[in-house]
Amino acid sequence: MNSLLNKLRIKSDAGGSPTLSSVDCDSTLQEENALADEQDAITGHLSGTLQLSDELLKTPTDPNKDFGYTVPCEGSSPTRSNVTFEVISAEVIRDGRSGHVNYTVLINPHRDSPKGKETVITRRYSDFEGLHQRLKKRFPSLMSQISFPRKILTGNLTSSTIAKRSTAFEQYLTHIFSHFDLRYSHEFMEFFVQDGFHNAVQLFLSQDLSRASELFEQVLPILDKLYGDSHPHVFHCLCALVVCYSRLERTHAALTCAEVALRCSGSADNDLLTSLIQATVRLSWTLGKDKSELERRLEAMRARSSNSNNVTPKSVRELCDILTEVFQLRMRH
């Protein structure tokens, strides 16, 4: 283009207006025509529609790729037998002339457990008292051995009272956790997750998978820190996240959850485990990852099932269908 401009010699006529000489015009016109011919030739070779795959168009911040997604479960601690509890802060909430204290409790798994993100809950005195009364009603003999800080009418917002209660609550929760029946009671679990697990299941059953996944993500680390990743609730949370993220087209997150769930499937129902493996195979294929080992494991499970029942291997049911039945049964009880 510069060579073309250099050959445009501008001359001034008598009136001072710039003009092009006729010779220069002819030369310029010839070069412009030649340039147009070259462009047409290039365009002919590049004819067609330029398409970029959806994968190339996605950026690292695209939620469908889930770069950096981490499952809120370690997947490496089958049981918890020595969990302690620490009140790390206490906040006075005033409402006019009255008020209450919010105690933030850190759940400390066994010191040999892998270090992960801290898991905390915030509860007030009435929450602890409610737990105590429910456990006393169900386990009167066991609870007769466990002391609970008494309620006081005045001075409950003083720093001295808050400090004493903080220590008492730590000892109280640790003492309850040391008893197997109390530790695995519904009342104790509900104190930590409140209505989170129940509401997550309800949202899952109503197919509100986006909100369900948020609640499962919230309760999963609490259950994992309390009971270890072999607990059925932990496994079911992970399976539910696999279903949610698969349906929400968050394939990377779904596969990550599925891989952790397989590590937490020690006591899982055979049908549910088989469906989980099938879902993991499908997710691996979608993302172009090796699935040969999973396929061998799936075939071995189906073969064992066939041999034990002396029937033709049955088709694997969808993970969502089996998990729905599990949750429906739990809701009825």
Q: Order of strands side by side in the largest beta sheet?
A: 3-4-5
Q: Average the pLDDT over all residues and give the rounded result.
A: 79
Oligomeric state of the chains?
A: single chain
* CATH homologous superfamily title of the largest domain: Tetratricopeptide repeat domain
**CATH architecture term of the largest domain:** Alpha Horseshoe
The total of beta strands comes to 5
Sequence stretches where pLDDT stays below 50 over 5 or more residues:
1-25, 38-64, 310-314
CATH topology name of the largest domain, in short, is Serine Threonine Protein Phosphatase 5, Tetratricopeptide repeat
* Number of helical stretches of at least 4 residues: 15
Which CATH class of the largest domain is shown? Answer: Mainly Alpha
Main features:
PX domain-containing protein, two-stranded antiparallel sheet, Serine Threonine Protein Phosphatase 5, Tetratricopeptide repeat, disordered N terminus, 333 residues, single chain, mainly alpha, 57% helix, PX_dom_sf, PX_dom
Describe the SSE topology.
Elements (H helix, E strand, L loop, with lengths): L1 H5 L3 E3 L5 E3 L1 H24 L8 H4 L26 E12 L2 E11 L11 E5 H14 L1 H4 L15 H19 L2 H4 L2 H8 L2 H10 L3 H19 L4 H16 L3 H13 L6 H17 L5 H18 L9 H14 L1
Antiparallel strand pairs: 1-2, 3-4, 4-5
In words, what does this structure look like?
The protein is mainly alpha-helical and 333 residues long. The chain has three domains: 2-41, no CATH class; 84-190, PX Domain, CATH 3.30.1520.10; 219-332, Tetratricopeptide repeat domain (Serine Threonine Protein Phosphatase 5, Tetratricopeptide repeat, Alpha Horseshoe), CATH 1.25.40.10. Helices cover 57% and strands 10% of the residues. It has helices at 2-6, 22-45, 54-57, 125-138, 140-143, 159-177, 180-183, 186-193, 196-205, 209-227, 232-247, 251-263, 270-286, 292-309, 319-332; strands at 10-12, 18-20, 84-95, 98-108, 120-124. The strands form two sheets. It has a three-stranded antiparallel beta sheet with strand order 3-4-5. The chain has a two-stranded antiparallel ribbon with strand order 1-2. Helix 9 (196-205) packs antiparallel against helix 10, helix 9 (196-205) packs across helix 15 (319-332) and helix 13 (270-286) runs antiparallel to helix 14 (292-309). GO terms for molecular function: phosphatidylinositol phosphate binding. It is a peripheral membrane protein.
